[in-house]
Amino acid sequence: MSVIYVDNNATTQIDPIVLEQMLPFLKDGYGNPSSMHTFGGNITSHINTARGRVAALLGVSDSSEIIFTSCGTESDNAAIYSALAAFPDKRHIITSQVEHPAVKNVFDYYEEKGYRITRISVNRKGRLNLDELKESIDDETAIVSIMYANNETGVIFPIEEIGSIVKEKGALFHTDAVQAVGKIPLNMNKSTVDMLSLSGHKLHAPKGVGALYVRKGTPFHAFMIGGHQEHGRRGGTENVASIIGLGKACEIAAQYIDDENTRVRIMRDKLEDAILSSVAHTFINGDRNERLPNTSNISFEYIEGEAILLMLDKYGICASSGSACTSGSLEPSHVMRAMGVPYTAAHGSIRFSLSRFNTDNDINFIIEKLPAIIEKLRNISLFDEKKVY
Amino acid sequence: MWDYTEKVKDHFLNPRNVGEIVNPDAVGEIGNIRCGDALRLSLKIDDNKRIVDAKFKTFGCASAIASSSALTELIKGLTLDEALKISNNDIAEYLGGLPEEKMHCSVMGQEALEKAINSYRGIKTDETEEDKQGNIVCKCFGVTDSKIKRVVMENNLKTVDEVTNYCKAGGACGSCHDEIEKIIRDVHKIKSEKDQEQEEIRQGKKKLTNIRKIQLIQETIDHAIKPALRHADGDLELVDVDGDKVYIRLKGACSSCRSAGMTLKGYIEKTLRDSVIDTLEVIQEKS
């Protein structure tokens, strides 16, 4: 059975060209870039090439502003830790209600430690209520951390508008851009963002590598303390092959960003339109206009997400859900709840996230199989539009 | 991904007895859409009080659907008395086992059956005996102490996590974890070190030092009171302890809430007295 992979916000396939570029560094090119000998030392230039490629994708002109890390979560932790260490007297943090756990749970931890946290709410379309930012930001605010685009709905936040509010008050501005990088054009040269996190495996590089952009002049305190790697900003011997892979993946992403915004978007829209027209009691979660081109979050009312996923799985279709049962918790995802998606629909939300490796055939296959799955589960369900409580 | 047995997968993909019996003799419905699973069981019962047909409709995940399907297969042909002996474990066993986190699906099946039979026998249908007698412990999922006691006893549960897996109690905000722990200890007749300490203090066998008193007050605030207040977007801060006087400051929604006075005396003071010493007096510092 072939796999129809539409779960690219969870992780992506390594681009074969990326893998090819990495392999030499897992074979003969195993040297340590910190070594004095040529065999190891030569690796440094390859890492710096990768650094330049990451910088280019982000619209960063000075590549020393890029720090390689082990993943998006580490980048988020490092940015937050650094900001709080830089301003020990500022005890207030602003974030949103819909962050990824890599940010959300870090702030929950700091709240336990006595920090005051403001979590900006979102409306039914998943858009931030920016008035809450304006009202809550003050001289005590150390960091504002708001994601670039939401992983569940794909909704893109007005980062520059947020940044200009943040800058007025002198707080640091971090954005978790793990879902945005490679999918929409970014330009850090003309941005108010101080720090930005990205992750390799979301853009066709391998797992276990990420990066943190830190604007020059931003105070920085190392999260991983160790050797002098990354100019002392991130200790630990470099994950050379994966860094090379991330560099190549960023270079390719830059080439394909138009494709992402046209071909991928067209496939996504086709999938959505077909599902909405063929399956009743179905709606899109998140603002359809301000959205990543690859993401679609659809609620199927009166049925439960895990059941839908397992029926899709039978056909090799890989998607994900915000239902309680899939998360291992007993409540639907915090994003669906923050948006006020009714329980009749939150439990039945399914996320399809595409990539440039998807084809029209994939989309047609899903469109062909999905309606019968929904119908079957609705026949089993005791809820319908007449009976909901 | 959940590790479902082949039998669970089979009963999910090919569920038996889906639907509703026309003119049923008994119906049992349990759960609601907020909780993420719900089941309606309808039965046809003959003159000998034997279940001749059973059908179900279920909203829920794969294991909820499979558990419902298994339930209907298990009970067909049984007398009502025999059917009442079916436990949640029988349903899980029939399916070759369920992941621990999904055991509540089998409990749901057992409860729907009990409700259906109770309704047939003229026992009030909208609440089981258990719910009527019990007090709500888990507010998020509306689970009573008697239901928690029952799953703890029947399945020999030892931890809060296990209780959550079997009946959902404690699975959301977490403010009832202490209470669930207490129920587990009561059922197994285990005393916690803290209870032991409290008892010794009450009996005058042990002196409550100032340091220990403040520690206990802070612990109670952090682990019991704060989580409960946060449920209503409220918060509080311990300002000072002077003898038996506990000075606190209400924050968040509590600071402007009209019923804060009641919360203060009725809930905060009572909770602190119950878990530290019953001479405590809580005084609100105005911010």
Secondary structure layout:
The complex is a heterodimer of chains A (389) and B (287).
Chain A: E1 4-5, H1 16-26, H2 38-41, H3 43-58, E2 66-69, H4 72-86, E3 92-96, H5 101-112, E4 116-120, H6 130-136, E5 141-145, H7 159-168, E6 172-176, E7 195-199, E8 210-214, H8 240-278, E9 282-284, E10 295-300, H9 305-314, E11 317-318, E12 320-321, H10 324-327, H11 334-338, H12 343-346, E13 349-353, H13 360-380
Parallel strand pairs in A: 1-11, 3-4, 3-5, 5-6, 6-7
Antiparallel strand pairs in A: 2-8, 7-8, 9-10, 10-13, 12-13
Helix pairs in contact in A: 1-8, 3-8, 8-13, 9-13
Chain B: H1 6-13, E1 26-32, E2 37-45, E3 51-59, H2 62-75, H3 80-84, H4 88-94, H5 103-120, H6 129-133, E4 136-138, E5 143-144, H7 145-155, H8 160-167, H9 177-188, H10 193-202, H11 210-230, E6 234-242, E7 245-252, H12 260-275, E8 281-284
Helix pairs in contact in B: 1-2, 2-5, 4-5, 5-8, 7-9, 11-12
Kindly describe this structure.
The complex is a heterodimer of chains A (about 400) and B (about 290). Chain A contains 13 helices and 13 strands. The radius of gyration of chain A is 22 Å and the shape is globular. Chain A folds into 2 domains: about 5-10 and about 255-380, Alpha-Beta Complex (Aspartate Aminotransferase, domain 1), CATH 3.90.1150.10; about 15-250, Aspartate Aminotransferase, domain 2. Chain A is an alpha/beta fold and about 400 residues long. The model of chain B has no long low-confidence stretch (mean pLDDT about 85). Chain B has 3 domains: about 5-125, Sufe protein. Chain: A (Alpha-Beta Complex); about 130-190, Orthogonal Bundle (Arc Repressor Mutant, subunit A); about 195-285, 2-Layer Sandwich (GMP Synthetase, Chain A, domain 3), CATH 3.30.300. Classes of the chains: A alpha/beta (about 400), B alpha+beta (about 290).
Quick recap:
The complex is a heterodimer of chains A (389) and B (287). Chain A is an alpha/beta fold and 389 residues long. Chain A has 13 helices and 13 strands.
